[in-house]
Amino acid sequence: MRGMQPSRNGMTAMKWLLTLAQLILALLAAACSGSDSSTAPGTGTTTPAEGLNKVNHIIVVMLENHSFDNYFGALAYAPGGPYHASSVGCAADDHSCVDGLNCSVDPTRGLVCTNSNLDDDGAAVAAFHAPSRCTVPDLAHSWQQSHLEANFADPNAALFNSPNDGFVRVNDASDQPDDGVETPTDDGTMGFYTQDDLPFYYDLAEKFAIDDRYFASVMGPTLANRLFEVAATSFGHVSAADPLPSGGVFKPISGTIFDLLDSKGISWTDYSEVGLPEAMLFRLPTSATDPHFGSLPDFLAAAAGSSGTVPLPQVSWVDAGFTDNEHPPDDIQLGQVFVSRIVNAIRSGPYWKDSVIFITYDEHGGFYDHVAPPPAPQGGARTPDDIPPGQCADLSNPPASKQPGAGVDCGGSAADVQSLCPALAQSPTGQYPDDCASFDQLGFRVPFIIVSPFARAHYVSHTIADHASLLAFIEERFLNGDATVSGRLHLTRRDQYADTLEDAFDFDNAPSLNTPVTAAQPPTADCSPP
What we know:
By secondary structure, this protein is an alpha/beta fold. Helices cover 24% and strands 10% of the residues.
């Protein structure tokens, strides 16, 4: 199934091509953003003093397991919407164009789309409007499965060729096997949702700004991407099977965004709907009143400016509970209601005028997307921090744990990587093989919305970004140098080179200051399994 591996000489030639491709991508990104090619990595075209200093509150909401095409592939076809599609791709300067599914509206069948994947019997399965808001069972999205979804014949070569042709066959073999009686909507990986299914998200996407080139940080599952969201690296972890460190927390060698914020006295809080904030992957509360950990009611009270509450911190993360994070098989409209509460709390409160809300998803969750994941912006390096996949290293037991493969609780990742890269199994702590997939390619696209008075209205950014861009934006605003540091502080090469997405903002005019926000309604019939 994995196909033949490229030869070492072939890989050497391809690495030269990759270097050239990365240079071209970097130049194109600079041209599209209007920045000079001499601009330092990750810096925007507007200096913080001119623009970003008007932002005093950043709120990050990360949900679970949906691709861009799964949620917004039909955005350009929404009745009355401001966007259009293009069968040949969006021009760099066309910010009303959404690179979604290639579809037409049929008077009797509704939205008919031509994007497809081969089934295991050789038939083509076209993208279809999902008949249910609950995808049962879950879909394939491990490290191995995701690379096979990208390039079914040669998953280790996905960086050089990613036709995204393995979604149906991978899910048939693992998570959603065929039952022998096929219908056009049996392969849930090819399903997509529309404005009727996600009215609140479509309303936000059409009023504010989105990015149709925002990718997960890792072509793999939740844990690795959640680690990237906070640390700009997963320090070797790629598997959901890796347990939390026994009795402790993850300790990346390069630290986390929380450490950087603390070093400059920037206030931050991770609010959780169910009392398990993501920040606890990296640190434990020091007391019952630790200001870095809060509940959803705490956030709603702070956002409302309620009397006697702690003010809204400069940076907030708000984590959904298990039924509200939109992870299959739960009803996706439950997550809409959760996000609606957060957005409306900020929109109707005293902090709206200087806030930015980022709404995105950790990874694709096995849902089809047609855009090839590009090289990771990290200066041409194979990893953000010289820690390859499956060779975890950290500060759990230094100095020994800083060596490849000696990091804590890496067994699942080592097994996953070795199953895709048999050469690594011969020397698990040796030099990482050149011809195996690494951290030099982003994951699949995920939905991304910016809600802010500074967001450009009805705007589609085509800037390549990933979760490290959230860190870069935070760093550019609050950690951008002082008398002793030139440029913004950063954790790894990934957030150093990440785009700050400033093209999606107009800090001078705040064009969306008076834009109204609707409220999401709960599903009339919750389709979540009991």
